Amino acid sequence: xxxxxxxASPALARKLREELSTDPALQWADLADLLAKxxxxxxxxxxxxxxxxxxxxxxxxxxxxxxxxxxxxxLREVLTSLTTGATREVAP
Length: 92
Prior knowledge:
The protein contains 5 helices and 2 strands, in the order H-H-E-H-H-H-E. The chain has 92 residues and is mainly α. Helices cover 57% and strands 4% of the residues.
């Protein structure tokens, strides 16, 4: 996540970063590496998951697994969630 005021007020940008740094919503960023791995795996298998399926796959349980150091289990879980009902990409 980036915060910028396009140079209008670096002080404001800093203030916003400081305020947001304690926001509990930022803990979701802990899933970034896991979701990147899941995305790469789906691409490798030529499977396309809908944006809605991605949203459904990102759960508090998944976050807790990652934060507990159970990334392998979390990856299996997210891939199962993403591929249930997903479609294979068709080459043009």
